[in-house]
Structures are given as C-alpha cells and as structure tokens.
C-alpha cells in the first residue's frame, strides 16, 4: 500500500516544483521528427541517493519514480522509457503537440530539491507536395512551374528534367522562352533537413510547335 507520505511528496512536487530554482542542467534543446523518438538527459545528475523523481510536460505529469518503482501516467504509458540511474527520459512516437517545455524534479534522500528544464521542438514533413503550372503551351512563351509542400521547417527544393538533374534549387522552375526541347517531365523533390525526409512530384509539359504554311499560287 502506498504511504500518505508518497502522496504528500507528489502534491508538493505538483504545487511547488515549478517555482524552485534550476539546478539540473541540460546541454541544449531537443529536436525530433513526427513518429521518431527523443532522449532527455541531465548533464549533471545528482551523485547522492534519490528519494523521488518526477518528469513533467508543461503542467502534465509524465512519470513519478521512487528508488524501487516507477509510475507512468496513462497518457504516456506506451510512449516513454525511463532510466533511474541517469534520470534519462525517452519519448517515442513523437507528435507535433509534444513540442514544449519538459521539467525534471528530483528530491534527494538528503539535501535540497533539484529541478531543471529543457525544451522539445517536433518537426514534420514534407507532405502534400504539388506542382502548379500549365500542361500545354505554345512555343516561344515564358513558363513557370511552382512547387509547394507542407513542411516544418521549410523544405528545400531541387528539380530534374527528364530524369536529369538541373541547377534549379528554388521552388519555381522558369523557362524564359519555350521550344520543343522543353517538352517532357519536370520533377520537383522537397527535402526536410531535420526529419531527413524527401518527397517528389512530377509534372508533364508539352510545348506545341507553331507550324507556318506558305501557300504558293501557280502562275497563270
């Protein structure tokens, strides 16, 4: 049976932990991709024995640990791992709404309460890649194909024409004056440098040649 002292400790952590000084240090904020995982680990875990540990996301409790047991709250039960020796929290199956502030609170067996904060930014994409532009044009006109994608952070772009690389690295591929050699498949590839994902989309362009007929009247 859990003692009243345990619940008293939880109440103290929930009510006052966020107002205490930061003694546990984290080297830098964490970045992650949707569906991936991230690890939070303090740089200076206490060397003394520990009575109680608690991890929060904002004001939401993720887990509470004693020296011999760990209670993971239902919303995180299938998504977190915890190492009591290093105080490391691993969060799996990341979602966009996991972005925010994470707080670690430690009550040593002797000494003052310790706290520390770090943050997480979850990125996603690219998705919904599309190319806007004309499908059929006349020879001698200016054409622009515009590529877009939903991505956080913003995606980078590259283009291929008929499976060959081009030097275009912006979201728009422009042809100043078309001729029949510009007919073919234009492929835009979007790349997210954080999620390490790339998605491509193709667009087929047909350039119509203007044929001029000359009618010669026979001499009478």
UniProtKB/TrEMBL annotation:
PROSITE patterns recorded: IG_LIKE (PS50835), PROKAR_LIPOPROTEIN (PS51257)
Listed transmembrane segments: none
- From which residue to which does the signal peptide run? 1-21
Ig-like domain location: 126-200
Q: Which Gene3D superfamilies match?
A: Immunoglobulins (2.60.40.10)
Write the record's keywords in alphabetical order, separated by commas. Answer: Disulfide bond, Glycoprotein, Immunoglobulin domain, Signal
Tell me the SMART domains matching this sequence. IG, IGc2
Q: Which PANTHER family match?
A: CARCINOEMBRYONIC ANTIGEN-RELATED CELL ADHESION MOLECULE 20-LIKE-RELATED, CARCINOEMBRYONIC ANTIGEN-RELATED CELL ADHESION MOLECULE 8
What is the name of this protein? Answer: Ig-like domain-containing protein
Organism the protein comes from: Cyprinus carpio
């Amino acid at each position: 049976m859990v003692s009243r002292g345990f619940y008293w400790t939880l109440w103290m952590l929930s009510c006052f932990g966020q107002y205490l000084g930061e003694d546990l240090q984290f080297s830098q904020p964490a970045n992650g991709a949707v569906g991936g995982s991230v690890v939070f680990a303090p740089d200076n875990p206490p060397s003394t024995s520990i009575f109680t540990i608690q991890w929060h996301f904002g004001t939401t409790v993720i887990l509470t640990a004693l020296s011999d047991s760990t209670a993971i709250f239902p919303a995180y039960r299938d998504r977190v791992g915890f190492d009591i020796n290093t105080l490391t929290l691993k969060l799996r199956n990341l979602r966009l709404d996991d972005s925010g502030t994470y707080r670690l609170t430690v009550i040593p067996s002797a000494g003052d309460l310790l706290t520390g904060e770090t943050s997480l930014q979850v990125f996603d994409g690219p998705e919904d890649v599309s190319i806007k532009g004309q499908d059929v044009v006349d020879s001698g006109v200016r054409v622009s194909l515009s590529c877009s994608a939903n991505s956080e952070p913003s995606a980078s772009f590259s283009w291929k024409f008929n499976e060959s690389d081009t030097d275009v690295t912006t979201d728009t591929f422009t042809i100043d004056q078309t001729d029949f050699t510009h007919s073919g498949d234009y492929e835009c590839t979007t790349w997210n440098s954080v999620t390490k994902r790339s998605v491509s989309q193709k667009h087929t362009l047909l350039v119509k040649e203007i044929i001029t007929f000359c009618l010669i009247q026979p001499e009478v």
